[in-house]
Amino acid sequence: MAQQEGEGEPGASAAQADRDFVARAARWGIVGLAIAAVVFALLYVLKAALTPLAAAFVIAYLLDPLIDRLERLGVRRRFGILLVLGLSGIVSFGVLLLGIPRLVREISVLAERMPAYLERFVTVVVPQVEARLGIELPGTLEELLTGLRGQEISVLGTLRDLLLGALSTMTGTLGTLVGLLVIPILAYYLLVEFDRVVNRVGQWIPHRQRAYVIEKARTTDRLISGFLRGQLLVAAILGVLYAVGFGAIGIDLAIGVGLLAGVMALVPYLGNVVAVSVASLLCVLEFGFGWHLLAVLGWYAAVQNLEGFVLTPRIVGGSVGLHPAAVIVALLIGADLFGFLGLLIAVPVAAVVKVFVDELLEAYRSSSLLQGNAPDAAGPDAGDDPTPVP
User: Are 239 and 259 in contact (CB under 8 A)?
Assistant: First the structure.
């Protein structure tokens, strides 16, 4: 009888361990869901007020390493912050003042030339495609293009008017200027107190959990900084390269294509697809199938190789750790739920979720719930019958 009780003890202890693991996971799950619900409600209600704060925090997070480096070189922190923010503001404002008028001119020129481009496409490009591919395109294609001739000017004109309105708004509306000034002011104070805030938060963590929380915070920081600092710089370089290259080839709206490709490059793969698609379409409309199209495709291939073998490995490296699909889904969900605020916080939230999901999966893999009653690695497989068949 005693032997039977002794034999039952390992099974009972394993079952108790399983129940403890499930109960512990359930408690943490309930706590996590409650915190997520409260944070979600606050973000949804206060998204308009929190957007400038989130933008300021992103700026402070991006610039803090540079400020720390200047401080190590002997520059006073407050002076370094003012210097970096001032230069960043001057450069950004100058790019906008110089870039938007140039972009407006490009759109105006494209609107004037578009009817001739569409006429050339119908009379020259379409017959070339039919002759080279040995096919006959549907007759409705010409009708569609004919219908577009009267609409493309209005669409481009509307886009031009929007850009002019944005430029006049930036330069002439006091309320907008005050709103824009809030972000650098908040960024300044966040940068001044950035290290102190981090240290104070660390002091409020219970001593027994401090090492664990600091480790997870550093992992999350590596994920976020790899994307924000690295991917932003790569996207800016790609936008400049596309704009310069396509402009040298002679493509209309080269600055617009480069700007659009640079912004879209923040979403993995999307920027490159946009660059080659829009540039190729404009090239075909303007020049048809010829060396210009080959030059566009060649420049695209060169920039792709530069990004894949030089820019991303050296600037971003292997520190991102977020799957491109996860970044795309996070950006889509964030934009749909919270608008621009969602775009700002989507990647950081995805990084935090990834860290704790990996921790949960690791805990499950090492738990008795999964490992209990597992056959020994040196023994026979669980599904094999050790008795030989006569």
Answer: yes
Nearest to 268 by CA among 320, 334, 220, 218: 320
Q: What is the 3-state secondary structure (H, E, C) of 289-338?
A: CCHHHHHHHHHHHHHHHHHHHHHHHHHHCCCCCCCHHHHHHHHHHHHHHH
**CB neighbour class for 23 (10 Å; exposed up to 12, middle 13-18, buried from 19):** exposed
pLDDT, tens digit (0-9, with 9 covering 90-100), for 36-82: 888 888 888 877 778 888 888 888 888 888 888 888 888 888 898 99
DSSP per-residue codes, 241-286:
HHHHHHHHHT-TTHHHHHHHHHHHTTSTTHHHHHHHHHHHHHHHHH
Whole-number Å distance between alpha carbons of 184 and 55: 9
- Cα torsion 92, 95, 96, 99 to 10°: value is -160
pTM (2 d.p.): 0.65
- Token pair of 206, please? 């219970």
Distances 79 to 185, 299, 305 between C-alpha atoms, Å: 14, 42, 40
pLDDT tens digits, 155-200: 455 555 555 555 554 444 454 556 567 888 888 888 888 878 877 8
H/E stretch holding 202 reads helix 174-203
Spatial contact of 364 and 356, defined as CB atoms under 8 Å apart: no
Angstrom CA distances, 337 to 44, 150, 340, stand at: 8, 37, 9
What's the token pair of residue 279? 């540039």
Give tens-digit pLDDT for 186-239. Answer: 888 888 888 788 778 777 877 877 787 788 888 888 777 777 777 788 888 888
Residues 319/225, Cβ–Cβ less than 8 Å: yes
Instruction: Report phi then psi at 290, rounded to 5.
Output: -165, -155
Tell me the C-alpha distance between 201 and 43, whole Å. Answer: 21
Position 14 confidence tier, pLDDT thresholds 50, 70, 90: low
What single-letter DSSP state applies at residue 76? -
Q: How far is CA 145 from the centre of its chain?
A: 35
d(CA 333, CA 93): 30
